[in-house]
Write a structure and sequence with these properties.
mainly alpha
């Protein structure tokens, strides 16, 4: 399986990558971040006219919180990717798959992070981009299997970067098969030892997919750290 680089909305993606919703100043930090980025500011005020027709950002954030802002923005960006324009009103049902993934991964990541949501958002954007391609291509959409949550039970701790951990498992399973990977995880086989079981071409495809994801979400730090920290 190979996954592509996708041009994700810069400021929104960084909002999901960074952990600004933690702490006593969470709402203030979110308001400052949105005010610093004109596109986000415009979109939030446009999408939350039902909360405050005057577009008072502080009130909107106090009413709907981080997740309320995040969810409507995700819907709007997905609509833009499909149709080339932002909607006046979003349909929250369009992110049901993303929220379902986040809900299923909640036991394996600390509270307050949006990395699982980010992976789901990326997967939806990949699907939209691949659906637009009429020519034959080498990439695959991300398919999240319920059986994969069994793999995560072998993680030694909750992972802040749950998106990277889960994506690695997906890519490894596509090469080694589900049964083989499960056996390796039960035996506490390190990731680098699992990678060593792949052929050079399989390793290259896996690393290129990880690089594509990291580039899409503007996150390169993971290549320098262990996945479970």
């Amino acid at each position: 399986m190979r996954i592509p680089y996708v041009n994700l909305p810069d400021n929104f993606t960084r909002l999901l990558v960074n952990n600004i919703q933690q702490g006593a100043q969470a709402n203030t930090n979110l308001e400052v971040y949105i005010n610093q980025h004109r596109e986000l500011n415009f979109l939030v005020k446009k999408l939350f006219l039902d909360i405050d027709p005057e577009g008072f950002l502080g009130k909107i954030i106090n009413v709907v919180g981080f997740n309320g802002i995040r969810n409507r923005l995700a819907c709007a960006y997905l609509d833009y990717a499909r149709n080339g324009k932002f909607p006046d009103k979003v349909n929250l049902n369009s992110i049901n798959d993303i929220l379902n993934l986040e809900n299923k991964l909640r036991h394996f990541t600390p509270v307050g992070y949006s990395r699982a949501f980010l992976l789901g958002f990326y997967a939806q954007m990949v699907k939209i981009e691949l659906d637009k391609k009429s020519e034959t291509h080498q990439y695959s959409p991300l398919i999240f299997k319920d059986s994969f949550y069994e793999f995560l039970k072998y993680s030694k701790s909750k992972s802040i970067r749950i998106d990277w951990l889960y994506l690695n498992l997906l890519l490894m399973e596509s090469v080694l098969t589900e049964e083989k990977l499960l056996s390796l995880l039960k035996n506490e086989t390190p990731f680098n030892a699992i990678m060593a079981l792949m052929s050079p071409d399989e390793k290259l495809d896996t690393l290129e997919s990880l690089t594509a994801y990291g580039s899409s979400i503007f996150d390169y730090e993971i290549f320098l750290k262990e996945l479970n920290h």
